[in-house]
C-alpha cells in the first residue's frame, strides 16, 4: 500500500497548483518518494495555504524548480 501526500497552493485543482508530492510504501518504509515543484503561471495561492504546508511564496515560484508538469 502506498501512502501519498500532496501539498498545494490551495484546494481547487482548477485554480491552485501542486507544490510537493511525497509517498511512502507502507510495507517497505525505506521505499520513499519526494519532489517539489514550482506552481504554474497564474496559479492562485489560497489564503492560509502556505501557513498549512510550510512553504513560502518565493519557494513555490522559484524558477530553478521543475514545473508541476
Description:
The chain has 69 residues and is mainly β. Helix content is 13%, strand content 35%. It is built from 2 helices and 3 strands; from the N terminus they run βββαα. A 3-stranded antiparallel beta sheet has the order 1-2-3. The radius of gyration is 13 Å and the shape is elongated. The two termini are 25 Å apart.
Number of strands: 3
Rg for CA atoms: 13 Å
How does the overall form come out from the CA principal axes?
Answer: elongated
Q: Would you tell me the structural class of the helices and strands?
A: mainly beta
Total count of helical runs of at least 4 residues? 2
- Listing every helix as H and every strand as E from the N terminus to the C terminus, the arrangement reads EEEHH
Helix fraction bin: 10-25%
Strand order within the widest beta sheet: 1-2-3
Oligomer status = single chain
Mean of the pLDDT scores? 96
Strand % is: 25-35%
Uncertain segments are none
Mind describing the biggest β-sheet? 3 strands, antiparallel
Question: Span between N and C termini?
Answer: 25 Å
Write the layout of secondary structure elements.
Layout: E1 2-8, E2 18-25, E3 28-36, H1 49-53, H2 57-60
Antiparallel strand pairs: 1-2, 2-3
Pick out its properties.
mainly beta, 69 residues, 3-stranded antiparallel β-sheet, 2 helices
Give a brief rundown of this model:
By secondary structure, this protein is mainly β.
